[in-house]
Amino acid sequence: MTEHVQTQQSDHTHFARVVRSHYPGLVALFTAVLIISNVAAGKGVAFFGDAEWALGPLQILPIITDGAFFLFPLAYIVGDVLSEVYGFAATRRAVYYGFGAVALAALCFWIAQQLPPADFYENQPAFEAVLGVVPRLLLAGLAGYLVGQLLNSYVLVRIKEITKEKHLWARLIGSTVVGEFADTLIFCAIAAGVIGITTWADFVNYVVVGFLWKTLVEIVVMPVTYAVIAYVKRREPTYAE
């Protein structure tokens, strides 16, 4: 009888059930933003390039940044949503996924760069210039991202343990201040020589301006972050206030 039941069951096609949750979609967005950011960051950007204005050692104008300046804050916003709704363990898992995806993308770009170009392919120098992997920059980006994102999530969750469901603004800003500062400081400390920073004044300027910009963006888009968090909480059946 048992063998008959097992045979009967094996005749059916089986699939795993997809559990309803916004978590996979947020992790996918989080990972995509990180991969795109690491490619776009290869372009140097200068706003108000003809202007010069300094406040002591701090250069205000021109504003020097990279092509991913508008994407990195988005990664922290998605990280805030993950931390607020799903907790530190789930966010840490997402950070590891993102870390692995960025490392894999860098490896694939490097392999593609080493492949012999076809006779008709004339864009090898451009391909290498845009997608070529600079080991020190890769290390700086991965280290800053890993430490910054984990600190961002940890601080947000710790503040939430104290404030419960109140004062969301405090944990969003508090976690961003810690996470973004650590991310910017670690990246610049490792990559300074590669990106052309040779003096302490330039180093301090890069860290301070980058940190202030990312923190300001977090504050400006906070109403959007509030709305997204509220939306996800209402639609997660396992979320318990």
From TrEMBL:
Pfam families recorded: Vut_1
Transmembrane stretches, start-end: 26-48, 60-82, 94-113, 133-157, 169-197, 203-232
UniProt topology in membrane: Multi-pass membrane protein
Family annotation (InterPro entries): YhhQ
Source taxon at top rank: Bacteria
Keywords attached to this entry: Cell membrane, Membrane, Transmembrane, Transmembrane helix, Transport
Subcellular location: Cell membrane
Main subcellular location: membrane
Entry annotated with the keyword Membrane: yes
Function description: Involved in the import of queuosine (Q) precursors, required for Q precursor salvage.
UniProt record similarity statement: Belongs to the vitamin uptake transporter (VUT/ECF) (TC 2.A.88) family. Q precursor transporter subfamily.
Name of protein: Probable queuosine precursor transporter
Native source species: Rhodococcus indonesiensis
Upper lineage: Bacteria, Bacillati, Actinomycetota, Actinomycetes, Mycobacteriales
